[in-house]
Write a structure and sequence with these properties.
Length: 409
């Protein structure tokens, strides 16, 4: 049959119903096809979306677990028995810090932001939240948990606990109310002028804390980031050493935690920069810089680029016999000449280029404590009340005694 004949048969009334049937069937098939295809496409999209969503949730969970796992790993490889910090719940900390409201920020560091938090029982805490979530930062947080959970010392910040539920780890500390030593010395000196006695006491307390870390904790711990902005003060100007993110205990060093050449410009031990080998004398150097800050009220490094830095300025002023020109006014007014010279010489010894010639922290702590006691004697005569806690108040020292010069004398 040729095509013309075929077309004719289609218009033939008899075959018309077939034709209609075919058309209807095609339409049905066509529509069903679209329906199936659309359904199929929707299903495919839904699957992809679900998959992505699940993956995100999984990643979130994985990150949470990473912190937990790394922490457990470190604990099992070290001395896990010392771990006693409380585990906080996320909700608790969100409530305490008003959802990490900016108005609660106490300080911002390289590593994390610290918020002021009020717990439901009214106690105030400081909550540190990591800025980023990468492995290095996690490890630094874990490091801090590990180090601080081994320590219970009046002049070292207390870690109350941590929160492992969130992606970013949260660490909870005791709240130290009066800001940092750096703020008092440099930012607004008139806000909280620190008297000479308080400066001496702060120096002795920090030295005591470092001496404890170096020789009294179960394994030697090097702080590695001593600076005036890491020394907190409470309302009685009690000094509290904080920020142990870079600290290393000798035991931890033997495991696989990455060593970061850390520290802060202006406080860095030149020998440590050269060798890359952290040791106790690098803390001594940094402590020497803090002592120089206490004497002069000047910053370790100023924003002025042409500035040679406090260390060089201080040492050259001593060499040229014009130390009294660079002293802070309060120090010059209140300090006795022999006291100031004693501390200045101590600074010089701490800043020696050859690390081996620097005194140990224990020796420094003992010397400063002795100076303070002599001064305390003279204060008593004048019936001076300052309200600071004497270091002999052993009952306040929680369960670890500071090594004081009692054992050395
Ligand atoms: C943060 O706190 C301030 C003051 O308490 C408040 O006015 C503000 O609404 C809070 N912001 C958020 C995002 O909750
Ligand atoms: C520190 O405490 C003193 C009183 O103890 C107070 O006058 C001063 O304002 C406080 N400074 C800061 C920065 O909180």
């Amino acid at each position: 049959m040729n095509s013309a004949a075929y077309i004719f048969t289609l218009f033939n009334p008899a075959s018309c119903q077939y034709f209609c049937l075919i058309v209807v069937l095609s339409i049905i098939i066509y529509c069903t096809g679209i329906g199936i295809a659309t359904t199929f496409l929707i299903l495919v999209f839904a699957c992809v979306w679900m998959h992505r969503k699940l993956k995100k949730i999984e990643e979130k969970e994985a990150k949470k677990k990473l912190f937990k796992r790394l922490l457990q790993q470190q604990l099992s490889s070290g001395k896990g028995s010392v771990f006693e910090t409380k585990l906080f719940v996320t909700k608790e900390l969100e409530k305490a810090t008003d959802n990490f409201n900016e108005s609660r920020i106490l300080g911002k560091g390289e590593l994390g932001t610290v918020y002021k938090g009020m717990q439901s029982d009214g106690t105030i805490v400081a909550v540190k939240k990591s800025n980023k979530i990468d492995r290095d930062q996690l490890l630094q947080f874990i490091n801090e948990v590990l180090i601080l959970s081994q320590i219970n010392h009046r002049h070292i910040v207390k870690l109350l606990g941590c929160c492992l539920e969130t992606e970013v780890p949260l660490l909870v500390y005791e709240f130290v109310s009066n800001g940092t030593l750096s703020q008092h010395l440099h930012d607004d000196p008139s806000a909280g002028m620190i008297t000479w006695e308080n400066r001496l006491r702060i120096a002795a307390e920090v030295a005591g804390a470092l001496s404890y870390l170096h020789s009294c904790a179960s394994t030697a711990i090097f702080h590695r980031d001593i600076k005036s902005s890491n020394i907190l003060l409470d309302e009685n100007y009690r000094a509290v050493v904080s920020d142990f993110g870079l600290s290393r205990s000798v035991a931890i060093d033997r495991t696989h935690l990455t060593i970061l050449v850390g520290g802060t410009f202006g406080y860095l031990d030149p020998e440590y920069i050269r060798s890359g080998q952290p040791n106790d004398k690098s803390d001594v150097y940094a402590f020497g810089v803090v002592l120089a800050e206490l004497l002069t009220g000047q910053e370790a490094v100023s924003s002025d680029k042409s500035d040679v830095g406090l260390v060089i300025r201080f040492l050259s002023s001593m060499k040229e016999n014009r130390l009294f020109e660079i002293l802070d006014k309060i120090v010059a007014d209140e300090g006795l000449e022999e006291e100031i010279l004693f501390v200045a010489k101590l600074v010089k010894r701490c800043l020696k280029l050859n690390a081996r010639k620097r005194p140990g922290m224990k020796e420094i702590a003992a010397e400063l404590e002795q100076l303070r006691r002599i001064k305390e004697g003279s204060i008593d005569k004048q019936n001076f009340q300052d309200g600071y806690c004497s270091i002999s108040e052993k009952s306040d020292f929680c369960n670890v005694d500071l090594i004081t010069e009692d054992t050395d004398e």
